[in-house]
């Protein structure tokens, strides 16, 4: 697994301090992107939170996921959460070290007391002393949140005094994109009241579920019941122990919403959203605790086409840090079809430039503060497919193509626009984890042949 090192430079450690009028939660920012360009320490918010205790617990839940490895737990994760200001809300995001759980806390306008929110994305320092202070926080004293340096200090910071260097796996970066693609296929499958949500989540097994068959649940009256047959309306809950971070906020839960794709009998990802006062905390789970989002392959078709690359450049100019991105509106502005806009958004997702909010059923704009483009450059299947095409390994013959890979020859057939292959990967997954490298290579070769023919 390819790794890079991400240097996070903060002006000072984040801290929770007592003041004469309550408490001040100062979250320090590292280098990030804003509408003004790159900034060393961007400032996104300063104001009193409507529900201090809930916000503190929600932030701890996101930090819990960032520090967790739900599969092979010997090496803890260590990347600080990402925060995005979208004008009307703050989004705190993290990924587990194993890449199988994506967490997001959305602090909405009502949770921010109507205070103005900036635009941009950066990492925020969540250190161990801060976690301990937030865990001990009690009472209803006012809490002033500051995301970024104090206003007077913005122009006077002389340099970072706190630096963290953390490993950043390529598959972790690809996970952001794959989670977005998976979530865009979700529908609301179940909804519980706060009391029923607490009862259900506290009834789940706490032990690790590696190697076990996935659990399925379906709404039954006011609650969820387990089922062995994933029929209509069922939602997959792979590794219920991976929802442990939700326990941080259960006492404040106003409800639980569960999202998932149309069940087809096989393990699938799902999203679990706890509704909080002025906020939402969502955990999105990969289809298997031993399988991170990075290998799902949902983005590969968009990455294999140069058309999507050109469209992505155009669509990126129109994003404007919007909290809700409507593909139909983008299509009208860009003069593209909705299908091409969605492919462009998928491609932008591989660079961390868009996410997907299941509650709003809409994309949102962010700019991850690291070189997320390397996730595309180092995608194993994509790299292998390009090498096959460059080496002349693909032979096209109508709807059938042959691919010479190593000492073996594979046949790739096209039917109704979809490709199938005779390789072991296709036999095992049947396209559920994206195309194999041979099908990708054929897709690239066919597009190349069309371009050559058009140029004659």
Oligomer: single chain
Radius of gyration: 23 Å
Query: What general outline do the C-alpha atoms trace?
Result: globular
Number of domains as seen in the coordinates: 4
Residue share in helices?
25-40%
Strand content: 25-35%
Largest sheet: 8 strands, antiparallel
Find the structural class using helix and strand composition.
Answer: alpha+beta
The number of distinct helices, counting runs of at least 4 residues, comes to: 12
Organism: Streptomyces gulbargensis
InterPro entries: Znf_SWIM
Domain SWIM-type: 410-447
Keywords: Metal-binding, Zinc, Zinc-finger
Description:
Residues 410-447 form the SWIM-type domain. This is SWIM zinc finger domain-containing protein. It comes from Streptomyces gulbargensis. InterPro entries: Znf_SWIM (IPR007527). Pfam families: SWIM. With 456 residues, the protein is of the alpha+beta class. The protein has four domains: 6-166, no CATH class; 178-293, DNA Polymerase III, Chain A, domain 2 (Roll); 300-375, Arc Repressor Mutant, subunit A, CATH 1.10.10; 381-455, no CATH class. Helix content is 27%, strand content 30%. It is built from twelve helices and 25 strands. The strands form seven sheets. Strands 10-7-8-9-19-18-17-13 form an eight-stranded antiparallel beta sheet, sandwiched between helices. Strand 22 (394-397) and strand 23 form a beta hairpin. Helix 6 crosses helix 8 and helix 10 crosses helix 12 (437-455). The longest helix has 19 residues, at 437-455. The radius of gyration is 23 Å and the shape is globular.
């Amino acid at each position: 697994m390819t790794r890079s090192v991400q240097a996070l430079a903060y002006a000072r450690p984040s801290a929770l301090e007592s003041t004469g009028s309550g408490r001040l939660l100062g979250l320090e920012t590292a280098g990030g992107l804003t509408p003004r360009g790159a900034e060393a320490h961007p400032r996104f918010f300063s104001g009193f939170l409507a529900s201090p205790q809930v916000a503190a617990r929600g932030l701890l839940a996101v930090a819990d996921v960032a520090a967790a490895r739900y599969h092979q737990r010997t090496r803890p994760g260590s990347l600080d959460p990402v925060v995005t200001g979208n004008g009307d809300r703050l989004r705190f995001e993290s990924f587990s070290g194993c890449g199988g759980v994506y967490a997001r806390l959305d602090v909405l306008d009502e949770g921010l007391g109507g205070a103005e929110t900036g635009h941009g994305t950066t990492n925020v320092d969540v250190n161990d002393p801060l976690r301990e202070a937030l865990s001990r926080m009690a009472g209803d004293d006012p809490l002033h949140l500051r995301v970024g340096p104090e206003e007077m200090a913005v122009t006077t910071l002389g340099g970072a005094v706190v630096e963290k260097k953390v490993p950043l796996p390529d598959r972790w970066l690809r996970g952001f994109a794959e989670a977005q693609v998976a979530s865009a296929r979700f529908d609301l499958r179940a909804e519980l009241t706060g009391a029923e949500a607490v009862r259900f989540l506290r009834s789940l097994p706490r032990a690790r579920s590696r190697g076990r068959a996935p659990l399925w649940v379906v709404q039954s009256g006011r609650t969820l019941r387990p089922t062995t047959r994933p029929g209509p309306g069922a939602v997959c809950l792979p590794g219920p122990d991976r929802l442990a971070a939700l326990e941080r906020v259960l006492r404040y839960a106003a409800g639980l919403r569960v999202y998932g794709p149309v069940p087809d009998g096989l393990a699938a990802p799902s999203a679990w959203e706890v509704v909080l006062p002025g906020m939402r905390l969502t955990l999105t789970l990969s289809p298997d605790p031993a399988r991170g989002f990075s290998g799902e392959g949902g983005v590969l078709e968009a990455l294999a086409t140069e058309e999507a690359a050109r469209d992505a450049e155009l669509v990126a100019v129109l994003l404007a840090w919007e909290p809700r991105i409507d593909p139909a509106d983008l299509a009208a502005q860009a003069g593209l079809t909705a299908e091409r806009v969605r492919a462009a958004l998928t491609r932008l997702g591989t660079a961390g430039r868009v996410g997907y909010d299941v509650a709003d059923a809409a994309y949102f704009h962010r700019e991850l503060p690291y070189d997320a483009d390397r996730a595309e450059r180092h995608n194993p299947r994509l790299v292998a497919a390009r090498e096959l095409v460059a080496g002349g390994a693909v032979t096209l013959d109508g709807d059938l193509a042959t691919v010479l890979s190593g000492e073996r020859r594979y046949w790739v057939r096209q039917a109704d626009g979809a490709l199938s292959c005779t390789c072991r990967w296709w036999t095992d997954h049947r396209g559920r984890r994206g195309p194999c490298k041979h099908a990708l290579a054929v897709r690239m070769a066919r597009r190349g042949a069309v371009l050559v023919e058009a140029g004659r």
